[in-house]
TrEMBL record:
This is peptidoglycan glycosyltransferase. The lineage of its organism: Bacteria, Pseudomonadati, Pseudomonadota, Alphaproteobacteria, Rhodobacterales. Its EC number is 2.4.99.28. Pathway: Cell wall biogenesis; peptidoglycan biosynthesis. Residues 432-702 form the Penicillin-binding protein transpeptidase domain. Keywords: Carboxypeptidase, Glycosyltransferase, Hydrolase, Membrane, Multifunctional enzyme, Protease, Transferase, Transmembrane, Transmembrane helix. It catalyses: [GlcNAc-(1->4)-Mur2Ac(oyl-L-Ala-gamma-D-Glu-L-Lys-D-Ala-D-Ala)](n)-di-trans,octa-cis-undecaprenyl diphosphate + beta-D-GlcNAc-(1->4)-Mur2Ac(oyl-L-Ala-gamma-D-Glu-L-Lys-D-Ala-D-Ala)-di-trans,octa-cis-undecaprenyl diphosphate = [GlcNAc-(1->4)-Mur2Ac(oyl-L-Ala-gamma-D-Glu-L-Lys-D-Ala-D-Ala)](n+1)-di-trans,octa-cis-undecaprenyl diphosphate + di-trans,octa-cis-undecaprenyl diphosphate + H(+). It comes from Salipiger mangrovisoli.
């Protein structure tokens, strides 16, 4: 057996690990082995690159061990070059800091992410079904309709019914997204881009980063509307206003909670469900909550039928619903809608031609929304009804009322006519008007010289003022009831009487003149004070007070002799109702404005009227004669300025002490109208009496109220004229006298006399 193979193996090993005395060729073989190279097939040992290299070096005469050591050193790794100490130190510190920051950052990020997940998860578990979030009002609404069935006022929180993002007009949906959150369908509830943009704008405008623009998404706004899941509880909050104020906080912590709640909503609900909640809960001015209520309130239609310009107007309200409401400032609301339409075009929701057409035909209010009449009347009905069905109702209520829109406009126009043309612009004098049927149904009400308003002081129902001579019909009603005739007489003369505890009291006429003996009719027509006092004292002050309160004067009637001069106080509504009792034949009335009350969508009447004709106060004959006497106030008395050319009217003027109050209350066969004038601070009027401006306001009102109606006679009863006392007739002379005359004539004839 040959051992030549083993020899080759040893030679290879020797080449891999050369001895100090190996040749250059052997070293070349070793290097080839280190690099993993293989000799080409057929190559002989000792040949190749390594051998060639060694042969070349030997030919050059560079053999020996030194040459081999140099070749090995060249192939060995060179040591690293030493760095500058300062650079190395800085680089080391930077590297250390970066590594520390990285470790902190990813740990903090992990903790924050965990906390966010926990926060979102917590709110997620608290979110109720969508259907429970659509109506978020703390109270219900009241819709008031007039005697013709038309809506004229809204009170409370209006909610037209739940809508969805797919049931409303596509224009409304697009307008809201274009205005409030154009990336609504592309974010997860919070828009970092929107927040960054809002901060940049706020800083550029010189505000704090969180002041002004908020960069909130629709989802975040919905979270705020939901008060981050905290619902109103009267036991927790002092008032609803405190609750709302807390929900509207803008602190950084609050913003953080809203963001978590918004992200939870994005997980719980679909985008359209979130938008549906927003469209139902957003306040859109005019007491309207939600798109449906706003569409009904401003345009008299449902939200599914809104066109582009109407939708743009509603979407524009979301930034400032109270100030931008079209019922408050239509032009301003239209300007905002114009901006929204441009946004809709820019974002592709409208074509250029559609936007141009919408811009050319801006949205306008419905006829009902344009009408601002009846505000004082609506306030009175709301205050007169039970709280649980009016001011604090938790249901949606519909109240049918006695208001006549034609008569309401007539009263408001009459007020404006007189104040615009006959009252100085600098005058602060106020006025009020009440129009009423003979049964106590209030048809119109103006509570101040400023018409078309609501929520303000109502002088027709809230101001109690001295009645002056407007009280005198109750004195004469008592006298007639006791059997006196309008033709009975009384002496108008200087008069004094002793009042127990007060001493002597000497009333005077307003004119300071006295007419002597006058009939009761003339005394009332000229509003003479002395006859009124004498009659009051004659029939008894207690009976006069009983008649006055019976006719509806609720305030305590002054029991002193000065009662006859109208020192007792009453509201215009009370006085007008009392005169209605005279017109209807002597029965008391309770003024009313509410006809019936129902829940919205329900035909069952929950409450009927609480007013109307009540018990009789005086007999019909006495009431009819009093009407006849009050006609003379207009025809020849102090109320001449109230005379109408086409029909019979009756009434009474009234001026209180020092002219602080001026009244005219009168009636035709169909309506009673009461007018009051005075200053709110109870200071005297200048140059105003009941027969002046109040009578003119009354005439202007009644002319408009009766326009186009048939003239009917008043229910007056003329009294029987007084019996004439028979004058004595001349008696025939006795026979004896005639005979003596004959004898005397014969004697004269005989004597030749003439």
């Amino acid at each position: 057996m040959s051992d030549s193979g083993r020899g080759k193996g040893r030679l290879v090993a020797d080449r891999r690990y050369p001895e100090r005395g190996q040749t250059g060729g052997q070293a070349g073989d070793r290097m080839a082995g280190q690099t993993g190279g293989r000799k080409p097939a057929g190559q002989k040992p000792g040949t190749g690159s390594g051998a060639g290299s060694g042969a070349a070096k030997r030919t050059a005469g560079n053999g020996g061990g030194g040459t081999r050591r140099t070749s090995v050193k060249k192939n060995m790794r060179r040591p690293a070059k030493k760095r500058n100490f300062l650079v190395a130190l800085v680089l080391g510190i930077v590297s250390f800091v970066v590594s520390i920051l990285w470790r902190i950052t990813w740990r903090v990020t992990a903790v924050v992410a965990l906390l966010l997940a926990l926060g979102v998860g917590y709110f997620y578990t608290k979110l109720p079904p969508v259907t429970e979030l659509l109506d978020g009002r703390a109270r219900g609404s009241v819709t008031l309709i007039d005697r013709n069935g038309a809506i004229f006022a809204w009170r409370g929180d209006q909610f037209g019914g739940a809508v969805t993002a797919t049931s409303v007009s596509k224009h409304l949906k697009n307008a809201v997204i274009a205005t409030e959150d154009k990336r609504f369908y592309h974010h997860f509830g919070v828009s970092p881009r929107g927040v960054a943009s809002a901060i940049r704008i706020n800083l550029a405008e010189g505000r704090g980063p969180l002041s002004g623009h908020g960069g909130s998404t629709i989802t975040q706004q919905t979270a705020k509307l939901l008060c981050i899941g905290v619902f109103y509880d009267p036991k927790v909050w002092k008032s609803e206003a405190d609750y709302v104020s807390d929900c509207r906080q803008s602190s950084l912590a609050r913003k953080g909670k809203e963001a978590l709640y918004a992200m939870a909503m994005e997980l719980k609900y679909t985008k359209d469900e979130i938008l549906s909640i927003y469209l139902n809960r957003a306040y859109m001015g005019g007491g309207a909550y939600g798109a449906e209520a706003a569409a009904e309130r401003y345009f008299g239609k449902n939200s599914a039928t809104l066109n582009a310009q109407e939708s743009a107007m509603l979407a524009g309200l979301l930034t400032a619903p109270s100030t931008l409401a079209p019922t408050a400032d239509l032009e301003r609301s239209q300007n905002r809608a114009s901006t929204v339409l441009r946004l809709m075009r820019d974002q592709g929701y409208l074509s250029a031609s559609e936007e141009q057409q919408a811009q050319a035909n801006p949205a306008t209010l419905s006829e009902e929304a344009q009408s601002k009449t009846g505000g004082y009347f609506a306030d009175w009905v709301m205050s007169a009804g039970p709280e649980y069905f009016t001011r604090d109702t938790m249901e949606d209520v519909v109240i049918r009322t006695t208001l006549d829109p034609k008569l309401q406009k007539a009263a408001e126009d009459a007020m404006n006519e007189v104040y615009d043309n006959k009252v100085k612009e600098s005058s602060k004098a106020q006025a009020a008007i009440v129009v009423m049927s003979a049964d106590g149904a209030v048809r119109a009400m103006v509570g101040g010289r400023k018409t078309g308003v609501s929520g303000v002081f109502n002088r027709a129902t809230q101001a109690k003022r001295q009645t002056g001579s407007a009280f005198k019909p109750f004195i004469y009603a008592t006298a007639l009831e006791l059997g006196h005739s309008p033709y009975d007489t009384v002496v108008d003369e200087p008069f004094c009487m002793n009042v127990p505890g007060s001493g002597q009291w000497c009333p005077q006429n307003y004119s300071r003149n006295y007419k002597g003996k006058v009939t009761l009719t003339d005394a009332l027509a000229h509003s003479l004070n002395i006859p009124a006092v004498k009659i009051s004292e004659s029939v008894g002050r207690d009976l006069v007070a009983k008649v006055a309160t019976g006719f509806g004067i609720k305030s305590e009637v002054n029991s002193s002799p000065a009662m006859a001069l109208g020192t007792s106080e009453a509201t215009l509504l009370e006085m007008t109702g009392a005169y209605a009792g005279i017109l209807n034949g002597g029965s008391a009335v309770v003024p009313y404005g509410l006809v019936d009350l129902r829940l919205k969508g329900d035909n069952e009447v929950l409450m009927g009227t609480g007013g109307g004709i009540r018990e009789r106060v005086i007999q019909p004959d006495a009431a009819g004669q009093l009407v006849w006497m009050m006609e003379h106030v207009i025809n020849g008395g102090t109320g001449g300025r109230a005379k109408l050319s086409d029909r019979e009217v009756a009434g009474k003027t009234g001026t209180s002490n020092d002219a602080r109050d001026a009244w005219f209350i009168g009636f035709t066969a169909d309506y009673v109208v009461g007018v009051w004038m005075g200053n709110d601070d109870n200071s005297p009027l200048t140059g105003v009496t009941g027969g002046g401006l109040p009578a003119e306001i009354w005439r202007e009102t009644m002319q408009r109220v009766t326009e186009g109606t048939e003239a009917k006679p008043l229910p007056a009863i003329a009294p029987e004229p007084p019996r004439q006392v028979a004058q004595p007739q001349p008696q025939p002379q006795p026979q004896r006298v005639r005979r003596d005359n004959i004898i005397q004539q014969v004697i004269r004839d005989l004597l030749g006399g003439g």
